[in-house]
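Customer escalation, tier 2.

The customer says the design service returned an amino acid string that "doesn't look like it belongs to this structure." They asked us to rerun it and document both sides in this ticket. The original structure tokens are below, unchanged.
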């Protein structure tokens, strides 16, 4: 999908032969959330704890509109890497959460109330946390700031 809206977004691509491709894609999903000003972003490595996924990417959005913007950017980032979602839940509801299922990666977006209620980090407290490259506050390049502002204007 190439349009004026996607041209300015910071869409990163991983090499197809990347040895840790799934881990890298989980980190890209977290980065997409960061670029859309999500709060409390965490990547949980659940590979050894369950059979249906390898990573949870969990983030908090302040509004429903912000959560949709995060989901859209994650989807664009994944599609650019030939990684397509299997399903989405909560997108049309006003329930306070959204789930994007990519098979090995599950992206879970919550508003603050739902995040507190579901407490996924406590349920999966044995899961190791992964880091992702997150620029220091106030240090994001201008084009990344413009990209994250795209859905807000």
């Amino acid at each position: 999908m190439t349009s004026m809206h996607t041209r300015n977004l910071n869409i990163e691509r991983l090499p197809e032969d990347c040895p840790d491709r799934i881990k890298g894609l989980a980190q890209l999903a977290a980065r997409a959330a960061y670029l859309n000003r999500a709060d409390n972003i965490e990547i949980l490595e659940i590979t050894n704890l369950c059979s249906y996924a390898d990573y949870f990417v969990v983030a908090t959005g302040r509004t429903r509109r912000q959560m949709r913007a995060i989901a859209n950017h994650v989807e664009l980032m994944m599609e650019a890497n030939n990684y397509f979602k299997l399903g989405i839940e909560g997108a049309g509801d006003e329930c306070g959460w959204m789930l994007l299922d990519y098979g090995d990666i599950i992206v879970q977006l919550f508003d603050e109330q739902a995040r507190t209620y579901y407490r996924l980090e406590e349920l999966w407290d044995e899961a190791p946390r992964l880091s992702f490259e997150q620029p220091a506050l106030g240090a994001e390049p201008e084009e990344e700031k413009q990209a994250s502002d795209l859905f807000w204007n």
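Tier 2 assessment: The sequence is consistent with the input. The radius of gyration is 15 Å. The chain has a mean pLDDT of 83. Sent an explanation to the customer and offered a walkthrough call.
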